[in-house]
Amino acid sequence: MKILGIIPSRYASTRFPGKPLVQINGKSMIRRVYEQASKSSLLHAVVVATDDQRIADEVKSFGGQYVMTSDTHQSGTDRCAEVVGHFPDIDAVINIQGDEPFIDPEQIDLVARCFNDPHVQLATLVKAITNEVDLFNTNIPKVVFNAMEEAIYFSRQTIPFIRNHSPAQWLSAHPYYKHIGIYGYTATALRAITQLPPSSLELAENLEQLRWLENGYKIKVRITTLETLAIDTPEDLNKLS
C-alpha cells in the first residue's frame, strides 16, 4: 500500500500569521514538520500542500516537495483532497498537522498501520486524559469509542457525563480520551467525505469529523501515549525553550 503524508500549510493564520515560516532553532517550522514526517517508515512520500508562494519557496529551498492548492479550502482535509488528485497511485493519505514541529514519526506510523485492515476508511489518534484541566477544557475535543476501537462521538464537552459522581471524581471513575489531530484516510474515502455538505453536528461543535460520523463513516481509533506541542500562537514558542 502506498501512503502519502500531506502537510497542509497556509500563511494567513488568524492567531499567528506566517506561522509556517517562523524560525525554531535555525529552521522554519514547516521544515521541521517535513523532516520529522520524512522519518516515518511507512510513508511513500511527504508533500506540503499550500496556497502561498512564500511557503512553497521555503519548502523548495530545503529540497522538499510541495503542491500549490486553492486558497478557498475550509479545512486541511479539503486541501489534502486536492493534492491526492496529483498522485493517482496513492492508496491512503495521512494528514499531518503543520504546526507540530517535533511530531514523533511513530505517531504517523501508528495511524498508517490502521490501513493494514482493508475495511478501515478513516483513522485517527486519541490519548488518555490525566488531569482535570484538559478534562474540562472545551478547546480540547474528547472522544468516546466502542469495543472495536471505532469512534462513537467527538465533543468539546466532557463526555461521558458520569451520573452520581461529582465532576472532581470523574477521572477516577471512568477513562477519558482527548483527540490528537492527525487523520488518515483512504484515497477513496478522502474524495468522498470532502463532497459531503456540512452536517448539523459538525456545525454545532465545529468539529469536521462529526460530518463523517453523521454520514455513516467509521473512524478507526488508535491510542497513543505520545503528544507533541502544537504552536498556535507566538506565545507558544516560549514553551519550546
List the main descriptive attributes of the protein structure presented here.
alpha/beta, Spore Coat Polysaccharide Biosynthesis Protein SpsA, Chain A, 241 residues
Describe this structure in words.
This protein is an alpha/beta fold and 241 residues long. The protein has a single domain (3-230), classed as Spore Coat Polysaccharide Biosynthesis Protein SpsA, Chain A (Alpha-Beta Complex). It is built from nine helices and eleven strands. The longest helix has 9 residues, at 29-37. The N and C termini lie far apart (39 Å).
Layout of strands and helices, then pairs:
Blueprint: E1 3-9, E2 23-24, E3 27-28, H1 29-37, E4 45-50, H2 53-61, E5 66-68, H3 76-84, E6 92-95, H4 105-113, E7 122-128, H5 132-135, E8 142-145, E9 151-155, H6 170-173, E10 177-186, H7 187-193, H8 200-205, H9 209-214, E11 219-223
Parallel strand pairs: 1-4, 1-6, 4-5, 7-11
Antiparallel strand pairs: 2-3, 6-10, 7-10, 8-9, 8-10
